[in-house]
Amino acid sequence: MNRSASRTLLQLGALGTLGTLAVGSSAWAATVQLKLEVPRLNVAEYHRPYIAVWVEKAGESGPAVAQLAVWYDTKKQNNAGTKWLKDMRQWWRQGGRNLTVPADGVTAATRAPGEHAISLDTSAALAALPPGKYEVVVESSREAGGREVQRLPLTWPVKAAATAKAQGEHELGALELTVKP
Amino acid sequence: MTKTSIISRIAPVALAIAALVPLTAHAHMTWLLPNKAAFDGKEPVASFDAAVSEDLFNFERALKLETVRVTAPDGKTVEAENRSAARHRESFDVKLTQDGTWRVSNVSQSMMGAYKVGGETKRFRGTRESFAKDVPADAEVTALTVMSNRQQTFVSKEEAGKVDFKPEGDGLELLPLGPVTDLSHGDKTKFRLVLDGKPAADVQLKLIREGNRYRYKFGEVELKTDAKGEFTVEWTEAGRYFIGASTGPARGPNAPTGTREAPVQRASVSATFEVLPK
Does A93 contact B at CB distance below 8 Å? Predict the structure, then answer.
């Protein structure tokens, strides 16, 4: 192989990488799923936890660069359930306070104990992220209960299939973030 | 050789050492503490307690409130409400009408000394005004110290915002160079210490987390201001904290006593902060 040929190949290779990049950055091309376990707790007074899922840049403590999910008491009249949103303290101070709720595709009702899956394939906020290393942050806060924050690494856009796991200790159960290009 | 002879030889040395070592660790701390640091809502009311104690933050003795200064986020001063004095603490409320960080200080000045009237030495303790009234103008003042004391704390409504307080200008004070009301453990905060409005370099400070009553170690952290009067605090654990500092000539047998024309100047400051788990 002569020099010019190898150069052409290199250029082709570069083009190929760029091509995947372009595809990977559009949301519908990648599968992003977060499995989230709300633990069953044996306590006298149980209320379903408020849970927030957002994205922060890795290695920086906030602010939120994408809001992925916020579960709160949506059934109360006059949006009264928003009163306790600030009890998810990290979420609140990292940008949650600026989120107008209810927010389409982000906010939802609280969930019962058990395993839940959040599909983020169509998340516009995630799709808009510039390439880089991120952390998906999950915070749970329960009335008359505790609070817990867990983090899962995420490289965006998704170039390779990966699974990140974290185990909550008291207010969160098993967490699993699965990505596929 | 008997025990007594050793003790009798050691005792004077021990006494001399005891006199040299400042008893900072067991000194009483004066503090001003809000019921919490970060507030939300339309018009939240922050409540403050002022007390003197060795255990943080248990009320032991009421701190007599003198000049209470409340600086709103826009720099204007507002009045404290519901001032009350109880057996073990004094209290007041502040209505937080603006978003941002509020500064709350209690400032007092005291004078103490001794003077001679007709060969008899009398002790004096009071204020500038009572000094002028109680000490005869022709009396020989043999010792005089002017002490400026300040207790500070900070609260905020909604976002802490930009924290940029101008010095109040009298005595020692802490100027936070960033938000101090929405702290999480692991955060770091930079401060500037100023004396009469000017940076106070090379001043020792102590940082103590609350709850020393419930642990064996006092856990005091020694800090020192740099040439610009600045220092950084790392909030390693959640809890409420006390920062204290004082300036003035070293105490001890050789400390200056001060005169009527040139009294010894001392100043002290304390500030409280709240840190929540991340």
Answer: yes
